[in-house]
From TrEMBL:
Compartments, record wording: Membrane
Key words of the record: Membrane, Transmembrane, Transmembrane helix
Protein name: MFS transporter
InterPro entries per UniProt: MFS, MFS_dom, MFS_Na/Anion_cotransporter, MFS_trans_sf, Sugar_P_transporter
PANTHER family cross-referenced by the UniProt entry: HEXURONATE TRANSPORTER, SOLUTE CARRIER FAMILY 17
Signal sequence bounds: none
CDD domains named among the record's database cross-references: MFS_ExuT_GudP_like
Residue ranges of every copy of the Major facilitator superfamily (MFS) profile domain listed in the record: 10-420
One GO cellular component, as annotated: membrane
A family per Pfam: MFS_1
Entry keyword Coiled coil: no
Main location per the UniProt record: membrane
Species of origin: Sandaracinomonas limnophila
Length: 424
């Protein structure tokens, strides 16, 4: 029976929104050396700016998760992208450490709406067996944004200056907003959705929730499923933040990479993450289609991704940049594969009415870890920079990166070995 494919158009909208989301947040990492020279930043100064973003992002996730469950995905996403696009543009007016920290905080508040809205959209528009793949596809937008940034930002910096890099990338969000307002609506209200596709989307026989009051997010802390998602995000999200905000300067410090030119090395890393995101989402869905229980498919997939991050510990032994690129590409790709599945286990364990709130709680935990980890990174790098060997600081950081995912996997599957559904 022909069921239609409008749901994949929605996935495309989510993909481009996530691309813009990561493009905007990646800009400062690529401009870091130029901004350090202009504003005389130390590594600690820069880590404090990153922390301002993470703290605001964490608080915003808690707020946006509950808000989106109440006002709906369409309006919630609209508010989110308007705030973050304005904040991205306003970076061009920053004059020092404090003003950059303020703009990053405003950006963090706006960007915090992206994943609660996107994951809720996936839960609304896809049956369970397709959610990991849909999540992997839209989440790969993070990687495309990270690939586009090393191409666009150095060119804008060289030709127009760092201010224009923020203005141009920030303005792209308003273009996306036009398409969102035209094409998005909830499945139950969408006039272009066929009855066959609507029935396919709801084939899991989940309870109808159109007239059910959203769950209060504070009550969700009473479920072990929430804590499994909480710790899974808290331990692994900070590693991705490190890849975004410090990887360019790592290549510059360790291998003297010129960040004023488009960086093939960074493009390779973030291209690999696109493969990881889509492939990771596909793998668990493929196992489910083969007859595996969904909890077993997610469990085995996430274990393989956690193991794939471990080799990054060997980055300290790399003699040339391409050896490091290979190890970091594998770890970053594994992170995105992990991410596609950890979001999917949230949709497996919670009803649709609570998903945005749960994603907000997990995202807050990830940002909480993202506040602590930059403190560690900044302190380590400043300490070893004084000693004259900043690379020893990066070596310690890579050891932490390599062990985080296995610890997270053990915690998740100790708390919920079969990803039991929370009785909300």
């Amino acid at each position: 029976m022909k069921i239609g494919n409008y749901r994949w158009r929605i996935c495309a909208l989510l993909f481009f929104a996530t691309t813009i989301n990561y493009l905007d947040r990646q800009v400062i990492g690529l401009l870091k050396p130029a901004l350090e020279d202009q504003f005389n930043w130390s590594e600690t100064d820069y880590s404090n700016i990153v922390i301002a973003f993470q703290a605001a992002y964490a608080l915003g996730l808690i707020s946006f998760g509950g808000i989106i469950d109440r006002i709906g995905t369409k309006l919630g996403y609209t508010i989110s992208i308007v705030i973050w696009s304005i904040a991205a543009i306003l970076h061009a007016a920053a004059t020092g450490t404090m003003s950059f920290a303020f703009m990053r905080a405003l950006l963090g508040v706006g960007e915090s709406g992206n994943f609660p809205a996107a994951i809720k959209s996936v839960a609304e528009w896809f049956p369970k067996k397709e959610r990991a793949l849909a999540t992997g596809i839209f989440n790969s937008g993070a990687n495309i944004g990270a690939v586009a940034a090393p191409i666009m930002v150095p060119w804008l910096l060289g030709v127009y200056g760092w201010e224009m890099a923020f203005i141009v990338t920030g303005a792209i969000g308003f273009i996306w907003l036009i398409f969102w307002m035209i094409y998005y609506e909830a499945p139950s209200k969408h006039k272009q959705l066929s009855q066959e596709e609507f029935d396919y989307i709801h084939a899991d026989k989940e309870e109808k929730e159109e007239n059910v009051e959203p769950v209060k997010w504070a009550s969700l802390f009473g479920f072990k499923q929430t804590w499994a998602f909480f710790f899974g995000k808290m331990l692994t999200d900070p590693i991705w933040w490190f890849f975004l905000f410090w990887l360019p300067s790592y290549f510059k410090e360790r291998f003297e990479l010129d960040l004023k030119k488009p960086s093939l090395e960074l493009i390779v890393v973030y291209t690999a993450t696109t493969i990881g995101s889509i492939g990771g989402g596909w793998l668990s869905g493929w196992l489910i289609n083969k007859g595996w229980p969904s909890f077993k498919a997610r469990k085995i997939s996430m274990l393989s991704f956690a193991l794939a991050v471990v080799p990054i510990m060997a980055a300290r032994y790399c003699d040339n940049i391409w050896q490091a690129v290979a190890l970091i590409s594998l770890a970053a790709a594994a992170h995105q594969a992990w991410s596609a599945n950890i979001y999917s286990i949230a949709t497996d364990m919670f009803p649709k009415k609570a998903i945005s709130s749960v994603i907000g709680i997990g995202g807050m935990a990830g940002s909480g870890g993202g506040i602590v980890f930059p403190m560690i990174v900044g302190a380590l790098l400043d300490h070893y920079k004084v000693l004259g060997n900043i690379n020893d600081g990066y070596n310690i950081i890579f050891l932490l990166c390599g062990s985080a995912y296995m610890l997270a996997w053990v915690i998740i599957y100790t708390l919920v070995p079969k990803l039991e559904e929370a009785k909300v």
